[in-house]
Amino acid sequence: MKKVKKIMALGLAATLTFASMTGCSSKSDTNSGSNSDSGTASGTSDETFVIGGIGPLTGDAASYGISVKQGAEIAVKEINEAGGVKVGDKTMQLELKFEDDQATADKAVTAYNTLMDGGMNVLLGCVTTGSCLAVVDLAKEDNILMLTPSGSAAEITKNDNVFRLCFTDPLQGETMAEHMITDLHYKNIAVIYKNSDEYSTGVYEAFAAKVAELGGTITTAEAFADGEDFNTQLTSIKGTDAEAIFAPIYYNDAAHVVTQAADLSITLPFFGSDGWDGILDTVTDKATVEGATFLSPFFSGEETAADFVANYENAYNTTPDQFAADGYDGVYVFKSALEQAKTTESADLISAMTQIKVDGLTGTGISFSATGEPQKAAKFIKIENGEYAAAK
Description:
There is one protein chain. With 392 residues, the chain is α/β, with parallel strands linked by helices. The protein folds into two domains: 3-166 and 304-375, 3-Layer(aba) Sandwich (Rossmann fold); 169-296, Response regulator (Rossmann fold), CATH 3.40.50. It is 38% helix and 21% strand. It has helices at residues 3-13, 62-81, 105-117, 129-141, 169-183, 198-213, 231-238, 251-263, 306-316, 322-341, 346-352; strands at residues 36-38, 47-55, 85-87, 90-100, 122-124, 146-148, 162-164, 188-194, 217-224, 244-247, 270-272, 293-296, 358-360, 363-368, 374-375, 379-384, 387-390. Strands 1, 2, 3, 4, 5, 6 and 7 form a seven-stranded mixed sheet that branches. It is elongated, with a radius of gyration of 20 Å. The chain starts with a helix and ends with a strand.
């Protein structure tokens, strides 16, 4: 590992902002500390394969990282208890080492260096976009396979060793525009987004372009920054002929937006990106978010997810969200790559990524393009009677 370059990168990374593919429900504090080793190898095996993880386990975005970590822990435990992973003529046990980056770029670099010093073989991370952007070139320098469960900015996969399990920001914006205009026949749509956030602006820009292409109209696009009250933006939206509101923001901001919208007697339906996942655990009054629809690759109510949900709830006393499912699927992607490559050599694992298909919680037959993008379908989740439901 070239420490000089990494120390220089640490200072550079501090200027990057953070973002995540989107929101999470509040989690218990179980196993949520930093510098944690979990899913420790057990049973007999020839070697141990170390999966490193980076994400926020403390701070405002902790729910995202805790979910990914806990989902990955479930997968590691399952695989090890089933005998491990057959890699050529060896049988390997998995070990998960997860570092807290507090969703900041500088701490992500520190976490990356710590994991590399600790023998990381592959990286499940980072969880948030800014952190991903801070370490992608370091991972390229070390030629290590990197799979982000939820970093959604398009440029994250610029290097050929980096892959993404979640949807990109542009894909989310385009998908929701098609759903609202083509499927639901809305023509006039208002937008509220966070202009200081890469995730929010990325989804919004793609959404706006697709709406125009489909013949719709953005009646107003209202931006906000950290710590800002939403009264001005919502009052402006109320004064337009909008038929619906699209808010590509995280669940914590979304909870404040829908609450203030209710206070202003705004009854327009809300639509969100996958950052809305977990909003029901955040709003004080679930009625304020009734009828809202958002994108997600995972729905805990699906029959195919029943075993995972039961195991997760037994382990952590909470229902898993999409980020937990991303963490779980990420481990199984690595398992498939190991089996395909028949070796732990990084170059072979990277090559194997474009040759595998994985039936996971977030998609059936998940595959990856040479550009690092996943091939899988999105789901629409609607809040009905204070519960998440598959949108019809």
